[in-house]
TrEMBL record:
Gene3D superfamilies: 3.40.47.10. It holds the Pfam family Thiolase_C_1. SUPFAM superfamilies: Thiolase-like (SSF53901). Coiled coil: none annotated. This is Acetyl-CoA acetyltransferase.
């Protein structure tokens, strides 16, 4: 395995970039499944504002790294406030000289991590905080928002909205096309949900931990054919933060650094009629760039964290990243391959299907990848290689919109 790639700059020039600290906020498992089990602590978590979740996650990530907020000169934030990074920076008491508010859906955080790594490598920032928090579940309960997922009554999307073309329906159409073209079955898609739940069972921070079976998935209420309820992500509150630093700051860290070895970004479409092939996501572009950038191949990777708002996302992203050939994703996800102790552990925290999904989940992928690489996942869910050693390489790949955007980041231990 070419672990020596971690000795290179993330962009082969300038400074290397490391993940110095990661953290979740308390509301990562927001609230109980039913109000009958609510307690005071849960009530406080559900009452927390998105700003408060940002602050808690940021404080914890800084503490994890052993850094003070005065050292933070870069901030990446999206999805909150009229002037997203400015409002969040003010709330956190920061005055960054480098900011990013790129918002491309669930891929936002991998794209932002790539931007931040570029900035640090080029000397435009030394310490960049990526931070996110959202309370969609609590907002829906309190009727502060609706569950409308149609998006875009104006612009190009207006031509699809009258036909009820919701976000879920767009993913369902893509899944149906893959089934038609390659023979992928509902049972194979269900395997993704079953294995995600099995991984979540060992994660005390996961929202859903009770076991499920393929029959449970298939017999659930239909949401958008072929997706039943358990094919779809949960709705939770939550937040997290990731702190990136330049290599010359690593000696002062409180934890082992995890290096950003390579990254890639790509966009595809917003209007479904402009998507050339429903069976190919933009991860086919971002993944190829990230692996080439890192000097590794998919076969070198020990574990993968993949955006999974729906089961089909996991399957097709695995294909597009090169873990299996196009059309072979259905067979690839069977036989427990995605479990913590499987051939390719995927979404080891339980993913968006079982652990948490407060909206733009991409930052959680980076948190889990780093925890696994540092050997901090905990008893019963820490991934180990066949020889018992800790994993060396991980990939985090986020998807935004309805396969509209993709960001892929390769991470490794030094």
């Amino acid at each position: 395995m070419p672990v020596a790639a971690s000795a290179r700059s993330p962009h082969h020039t300038g400074r290397r970039v490391a993940v110095a600290g990661v953290a979740l906020c308390d509301a990562g498992t927001t609230g109980p499944a039913s109000t009958e089990t609510a307690d005071a602590e849960t009530a406080r978590a559900e009452a927390a504002t998105p700003y408060a979740l940002h602050a808690q996650a940021a404080r914890r990530a800084l503490a994890d790294a052993g850094c003070d907020r005065s050292q933070v000169d870069g901030l990446a934030s999206a999805g909150l406030g009229t002037l997203a990074p400015v409002e969040v920076a003010e709330y956190l008491g920061l005055r960054p000289t480098w900011v990013d508010s790129t918002s491309v859906g669930g891929a936002t955080w991998e794209v932002m991590a790539a931007h931040a790594a570029d900035a640090i490598a080029q000397g435009r920032a030394d310490t960049v905080l990526l931070v996110y928090g959202a309370t969609p579940r609590a907002d829906l309960k309190a009727r502060r928002r609706t569950a409308d997922l149609s998006f875009g009554a104006r612009g190009p999307l207006q031509f699809e909205v009258p036909y009820g073309h919701t976000l879920i329906a767009k993913y369902a159409m893509a899944a149906r096309r893959h089934m038609h073209q390659y023979g992928t079955t509902p049972e194979q898609l269900a395997q993704v949900a079953v294995q995600a739940r099995a991984n979540a069972a060992a994660n005390p921070e996961a929202f859903r931990r009770e076991p499920i079976t393929v029959d449970d998935v298939l017999s659930g209420p239909m949401i958008a054919d072929p997706f039943t309820k358990l094919h779809c992500c949960i709705r939770s509150d939550g937040g997290c933060a990731v702190l990136l630093v330049a290599e010359d700051r690593v000696a002062d860290l409180a934890t082992e650094p995890v290096w950003i070895l390579g990254s890639g970004t790509a966009v595809s479409h917003t209007t479904m009629s402009e998507w050339e092939d429903f069976t190919v996501s933009p991860a086919a572009v971002s993944g190829r760039a990230a692996f080439a950038h890192a000097g590794v191949t998919p076969h070198d990777i020990d574990l993968a964290q993949i955006y999974d708002a729906f089961t089909y996302m996991t399957l097709v992203t695995l294909e597009d990243l090169g873990f299996c050939a196009k059309g072979e994703g259905g067979a690839f996800v069977q036989d427990g391959r995605l479990l913590r102790d499987g051939a390719l552990p995927v979404n080891t925290d339980g993913g968006g299907l079982s652990a948490c999904h407060p909206g733009m989940r991409g930052l959680f992928l980076l948190v889990e990848a780093v925890r696994q690489l540092r050997g901090e996942a905990g008893e019963g869910r820490q991934v180990r290689r066949r020889d018992g050693t800790l994993p060396e390489l991980a990939v985090a790949s986020g998807t935004g919109g309805w396969f509209c955007s993709s960001g892929t980041v390769v991470l490794g231990r030094g």
